[in-house]
Amino acid sequence: MTAIDLSKIDFAKGNGLIPAVVQDADTLQVLTLAYMDEAALRETLDSGQATFFSRSRGGRWRKGETSGDFLNVVSVTPDCDGDAVVVKVRPVGDACHLNRISCFSEEDAPGLGRIGRLERTIHVRAQADPNDSWTARLIAQGPKRAAQKVGEEGVETALAGAAGDNAELASEAADLIYHLLVLLHARDMVFQDVLDVLTRRAEPAEDQG
To answer: Residues near 165 by Cβ (< 8 Å), separated by ≥ 6?
Structure first.
């Protein structure tokens, strides 16, 4: 976890508290909004588990102490004014006390967050018995087999795009994306590696004139 300069965090503006937006590090789904005092932020940074200040209880609380639904911290990033932070986490269980993934929605990993959720599922299933999991079996066969499946699904997606209806194209494209993510996992890569390339390609070309 990257260290932050606590001296630049403005706790005084909020009477000793700053809002903490908690976000899933993989899906980027906003999970909850909580508050931290300086002690809670220090404990979060030291322990690697999200710790907050409860305004209703009047004291600190570490998420998961009673429920077991911990928030393992990946990064803490202050905003431009230093009076709020974004806490990216990998949750163990639900973030919401109503047993939901997020306090803001019953939907799990909406939109492109589904890619991150699928990557997490692939990581878990990769540890399973290959006799019980297609994902584990495919990964156990090595990157070449996963690459072959990507090729097969790519052809099927192209055929659906040329002659199939929209439902067929969506289904084949889903299979293609799944097998691509398995291939990336087999090569110790993640989809963010692909996004990094797209980001670089989107940057304006340097003036050659």
So the answer is: none
